[in-house]
Amino acid sequence: MEIQTVDFNVWPKGEFNADYEQFFTGNSYLATLSGGLLNVTFEPGCRNNWHIHHKAVQVLICVAGRGWYQEWGKEAVELKPGVVIAIPAEVKHWHGATKDSWMQHLTYHRDVQEGSSNEWLEPVTDKVYDEL
Fold first, then answer.
1. For the domain that residue 86 is a member of, what is the CATH number?
2. What are the E-state strand segments in the chain?
3. Which terminus of the chain is more exposed, N or C, with fewer CB under 10 A?
């Protein structure tokens, strides 16, 4: 299997995401950009745990590589450059890279209400991930 790389000169890889590593399978990296945007870089096979954003909409903008986004009980959606996902508040979901590609997405929150929070849940199992 050939691994697809991304050009880190376009979107910075960032620093190892140590503060959230317990919520990821594999390694992720985080770069803070201007305007409140975050760039999250996932190594091949990396994905975050199932999670829910309470009282806020999360927006993902895939900018490099290939990945997956999946809502609980629904089919996964392929992430590739240009794909934008607006995740409604209270929706259980996960996102990450494919097995053979790095993936970068920008993320921010909108429609943020007082008391907004993020609830981290169980890891995405290898069985679920491997079926994609």
1. 2.60.120.10
2. 15-16, 24-25, 28-32, 38-42, 47-48, 51-54, 57-65, 67-71, 77-79, 84-87, 93-97, 103-110, 117-120
3. N
